[in-house]
Amino acid sequence: MEPYDDREARWLSSDELAAWRAVTLLVARLPAALDQQLQRDSYLSVVEYHVLVGLAEAPDRRIRMSVLAALAGLELSRLSHLVKRLERRGLVYREPDPANGRYTLAVLTDEGARCLAAAAPGHVAEVRRLVVDVLAPEDLTAFGAIATTLNERLDECGEDQP
Amino acid sequence: MEPYDDREARWLSSDELAAWRAVTLLVARLPAALDQQLQRDSYLSVVEYHVLVGLAEAPDRRIRMSVLAALAGLELSRLSHLVKRLERRGLVYREPDPANGRYTLAVLTDEGARCLAAAAPGHVAEVRRLVVDVLAPEDLTAFGAIATTLNERLDECGEDQP
Hints:
Structural class of chain A: mainly alpha
Radius of gyration of chain A: 19 Å
Largest interface: A-B, 62 and 63 residues
Pfam family, one (chains A, B): MarR_2
CATH class of the largest domain in chain A: Mainly Alpha
Domain HTH marR-type (chains A, B): 16-152
Number of domains of chain A: 2
CATH architecture of the largest domain in chain A: Orthogonal Bundle
Largest sheet of chain A: 3 strands, antiparallel
Protein name (chains A, B): MarR family winged helix-turn-helix transcriptional regulator
Order of helices and strands of chain A: HHEHHEEHH
Oligomer: homodimer
């Protein structure tokens, strides 16, 4: 890093700004674009889909809410609202963690597992159509590596922790 | 693309899945992380910030709502709600487009320009801290190029159009 006077803003260079603007636009658009197909075909948002995936992959289809929040990249309060909606639809239920009653487990129901299985092929096709099949394999790998670096940075900074 | 039977899902390979999961996690977390600083210091969300930037850069600080929606990567209905909130705070107002009364212009007020100018240094510092200064310059460039490719794909697919 160059030395700088922290009373002065270190504005982005024109190259940095161009890259950053493309990224922010993508980050704004991509979830909405993926939501369109999922909502239309499966009445799920992308975030709800990822929560169901997190549950489906957990041992015995149950997981602590705080762990699920980290997996889905959500604050715990936002996850709680989302899980309430899924609970009303019979896709998930919550129960106290038998190992420690101060924690709450979210549990995927059979209906939730069916809903996810029905939603998955269409969602994966859309992920291919809008992202995976659009990029050369090495660019997808690079994209994943960059995202991993930035996720680690967010972990370090304690951002987005419940 | 390989030929495939469209009755069968083309699941992601393990490499594709790993990359895609890192990307979806980042896309979920990054706006929330950037929101934390902006909300705390400037009472703005990242999306509101980008809307103010779009207005500040428009000639005479005014722009058609539909053009602003595309710039900010928002559906028009979502932009309308957001602009109403900014209007209540005196940062923006709307008026019919004198060139064509069927269109609505959003206009940045002096107070809106001051709010943006006050918010910008802190936001840019956070963008550096969480993204720009974390990546090697060539990785930031690659990230921008990948995002541009995917934004063009979304344009082609007519996704996210108002």
